[in-house]
Amino acid sequence: MRLMIGVLLAGVMFATCRAQDPRAAEPIVGLRETRPGTYALVGGKVVTEPGLVIDDATVLIEGTSILAVGNKVPIPAGAKTVDCDGRTIYAGLIDAWGEADVPVPESDAAHWNGNVTPQRMASAVAAPGVARAAKLRSQGIAIRLVAPRGGIVKGSSSVVLLGDGDAGGRLLRENAWQHLQLTVPRERSRSRYPNSPMGATALLRQSLYDARWYRDAWNAYRANTKLPRPETNVALGTLAAAMDHQSFVIDAPNERMAIRADNIAREFSLQMIIRGSGREYRRLDEIAGAHRVILVPVDFPDTPNVKTTRAAKETSLQELMHWDLAPENPGRLVKAGVSICLTTDGLDDVDEFLKQVRRAVNGGLSEHAALTAITTEPARLLQLDHVAGSVQPGMLANLMITDGDLFAEKTKVLETWVAGRQFVISSPKPVDTDELIGRWPLRFRAGDRKLSLELEFTPRGEKISGVLRKLDAGGPDHRSADGDNEQPADDSEPASAKLTDIVRQRDRLTASVELQEIDSELAAGVARIQVLTIGGDATRTGDSQDWVSATIELPSGQVETIQWGPKHEDAQRQDAANEPVAKSAAQATEENTDQDASHEDDESVATTVNEVQTPV
């Protein structure tokens, strides 16, 4: 008895071990990575699901799951806080289509035709690694379906997380959908049966009838063992079980195949999803009338080459129409009442996925429908809506963080979170901390004139903008760059010119400006400003002349050195601390103006400020 129990336990343990990737139990060589178990994403705009938004919200993550979402979420001690101010948080996207080469398990009980392999399972290759996972994450995709490639009855797909953990932790569903095809696979030889779409369809229908018979024969034998025992056939047994319990995805490489796929699904009462071609708009009413979910590719064609007469003649009207109408296909399907999922199917570069989805939105697909087609709808179809597709407590911490509205043209994916693991995609440049941000008084010569101006730099997203204006009585401290006494306030705005072609590279900034916009008496043309920040420290507190070197190339080609004064905010704080002294010093400065006139051109604004601090 004890021996039998021991044998049974050993068998259970062996079966369990086989179901796991052996690498999952490998000991860690070196130091084990320990990441904080709790994260708080605070201050972001959270789109919990299509149409539902929470502003200035907190998403609390513990381990692999979302713990809480809302405006007043208490942050536990020890949690790592991630500032999401100015960012938008979406559920991680779900790509409902991908393919991989899957070997056929060796068996003496396989189907007689090598194109019928329902026993193939993508989990055999999908769990150890997903091709292009990093690129998929760059598009905010956290989950992907992987199906076997090739064959007519191709096998079962799996659903995986696009993280970098062990294989067992990445596999979400081992046996998702069964996949069929109505044409001869391109990689298979046409010298053997089937060698045409008609033959492929006939083989598929015969296989489905055989699987139905196989199921019934075994049910009859189990009910009455006196009947002849049917032969074992792994392929037919797997296909029969799929007909009872799985959804089927049938490839439809054109709109006619979509209608044929629906006919086969009705003939055998299959739960069927159509893998679309992007050409469904050609027979929209018939396809919409089938009431099937469609996996819609966004591999819209590039602009046809019609630059020459010969190229234009070689471009058919059908190509031109498809180029024009393909981006409208998703929107037309949704308006006709069809449920769709947008996929990366057919894209040569998955980096183009979000760009193509935005083309579909521009082609008439609503933003609500677009977001549904890459989050909640694929989650529902894959029976994952209890763990993925929305930002809710209890869901997997699959998130996409962007710097704006997902469907805006210039929006970037900043981070993708996969089961609580953060992947930084694009770090926003800390423009706010640039040492040049602020208002600076400048002096330089333009021909026979000496100009006193103010240059202001302000952050604009990830870029920097600038404006050059006259520094007059309307300035922030009501004094000129020379440190003269206050002048009567002027309500009019000082003349200014916007900087263009601004390029900021590490310790250097270059820009263009039209000086004539500030003073009509100056020469027309573009002047080029170059600013060099020495040392690269963004927290400098010393005299700006110690770390800023600037020149301006006038329209005439003459290069002049810019005398760069202290930032106005710093000068105001300094004046507030020395106000009584500064006033008397200004009087002394005025009395000695004539004596200092000969040296005026060689003195910087910083020198003038130092003089007004000297006690009288």
Summarize the structure.
This protein is α/β, with parallel strands linked by helices.
Secondary structure tally, helices:
18
What is the mean pLDDT? Answer: 83
Compute the CA-based radius of gyration.
35 Å
Low-confidence stretches: 1-24, 473-489, 536-542, 573-616
Structural class: alpha/beta
Share in β-strands = 25-35%
Distance between the termini: 109 Å
Helix and strand arrangement:
Layout: H1 2-18, E1 38-49, E2 52-62, E3 65-70, E4 80-83, E5 88-91, E6 93-95, E7 99-100, H2 123-126, H3 133-138, E8 141-148, E9 153-156, E10 158-161, H4 167-170, E11 171-173, E12 177-180, H5 197-223, H6 234-245, E13 247-251, H7 255-267, E14 271-275, H8 284-289, E15 293-297, H9 309-314, H10 317-325, H11 329-335, E16 340-343, H12 353-362, H13 367-372, H14 376-381, E17 399-402, E18 413-418, E19 421-424, E20 438-446, E21 449-460, E22 463-470, E23 496-498, E24 500-505, E25 508-514, E26 526-533, E27 548-553, E28 559-564, H15 568-577, H16 579-591, H17 593-596, H18 605-611
Parallel strand pairs: 1-4, 1-5, 6-8, 7-8, 12-13, 13-14, 14-15, 15-16
Antiparallel strand pairs: 1-2, 2-3, 5-17, 8-10, 9-12, 10-11, 17-18, 18-19, 20-21, 20-28, 21-22, 22-23, 24-25, 25-26, 26-27, 27-28
